[in-house]
């Protein structure tokens, strides 16, 4: 092969690597719902902690399952409650974001594949789900009613439908 052919092959390879890398990397750019758009600047309650396995026994196939790793972020409105102690009752406007990683390598590289969000709505919005709304994905749409999400999270009724809080972190992370 002529040197120029090597060069071209190399270029094609690096471009395709770039495309693959971009496709799997999370895209937190662009406009999305202002309620969680800049969650990366919030308090990461799992900072210096490693969350994996299935401490509740209820994760089944969701949230990357028992082999997945997770990070949880909270906005200022819910921060004092989630990092406080029971009873955990979140004020309207609380937003909790959970980043999900396929495995330890992805977690260490901070390359999440997925993201789920809970938004505490006004009183009376979704009383059956303690007024939480649900979002799947950074660019997802807030759903006031999502029986799939709320059905499972109702297991944490005592803690206002939120599994991860300071007591939980201390015990499992
Ligand atoms: C089958 C049960 C189940 C379903 C369905 C489920 N979750 Fe979860 N979720 C959990 C568990 C268990 C945790 C706690 C930590 C862990 O094990 O990952 C959790 C944690 C979270 C957290 C971090 C705050 C917390 O409660 O710990 C968010 C945010 C979240 N889930 C959002 C969602 C959204 C949005 C949906 C629907 C798209 C959803 N979940 C569906 C079980 C579930």
Characterization of the model:
Strands 1, 2, 3, 4, 5 and 6 form a 6-stranded antiparallel β-sheet that branches. The longest helix is centred in the N-terminal third of the chain and has 22 residues, at 3-24. Residues 10-24 have low confidence and may be disordered. The chain has helices at 3-24, 76-82, 104-108, 147-153, 166-172; strands spanning 43-44, 51-52, 69-74, 95-101, 114-120, 132-136. The radius of gyration is 19 Å and the shape is globular. By secondary structure, it is an alpha+beta fold. It has one domain (29-172): Chalcone isomerase (3-Layer(bba) Sandwich), CATH 3.50.70.20. Bound molecules: heme C.
């Amino acid at each position: 092969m002529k040197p120029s052919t090597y060069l071209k092959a190399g270029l094609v390879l690096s471009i395709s690597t770039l495309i693959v890398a971009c496709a799997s990397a999370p895209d937190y750019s662009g406009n999305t719902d202002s309620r969680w758009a800049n969650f990366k600047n919030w308090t990461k309650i799992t900072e210096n902690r490693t969350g994996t396995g299935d401490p509740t026994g209820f994760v089944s196939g969701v949230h990357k399952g028992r082999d997945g790793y997770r990070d949880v972020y909270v906005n200022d409105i819910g921060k004092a409650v989630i990092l406080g102690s029971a009873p955990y009752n979140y004020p309207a406007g609380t937003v909790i974001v959970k980043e999900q990683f396929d495995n330890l390598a992805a977690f260490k590289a901070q390359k999440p594949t997925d993201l789920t969000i809970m938004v505490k709505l006004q009183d009376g919005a979704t009383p059956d789900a303690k007024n939480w709304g649900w979002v799947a994905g950074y660019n997802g749409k807030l759903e006031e009613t999502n029986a799939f999400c709320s059905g499972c999270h109702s297991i944490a009724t005592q803690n206002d439908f939120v599994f991860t809080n300071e007591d939980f972190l201390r015990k499992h992370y």
